Task: structure prediction
Amino acid sequence: MAQGEKTLRVIAAMSAMRIPAHQIALTLGLSGDYVNTLRRTDLYRQLELSFLEKLEDEAYSVERDIQELSAKALNVHKGILAGTIEASSKLKLDTARDILDRAGHKSADTLNLNQKDDAWMLVLTEEEFEDQYGGNEEEARDLEEDLSITEAREESERRS
Result:
């Protein structure tokens, strides 16, 4: 293969990757006029078309591989959740969260929690409390009762 044809192949490949002519000229140490002259030849057009077809084939191949891997990953997720694939509780929880997140059911990114005496409690500012319960004392008492019951259950489980 002659040096001119090698240069033309490189120019065609770079053009197929959408690299501008002036950048090709700078990269190869050629004049812009020379690059533009070569780009007007029939051989250049054939080479560029060939490179574009190869890029398209590669893109299709990569897309197909991603689809296959996605299907395999989903099967692994299903297996973990169904119990057919042995996994720790943490991995099962992470898997469930991942699936829910991807389905658009993502939980809040931050939650204000404080730990005190091995019991977790949710901290709401007065404003957040008012916004959530609207000053409804009955709902507030129900919430307080629910939290007390939950804390009592957790304490009982810890003792057993």
In short: The beta strands are 113-116, 119-122.
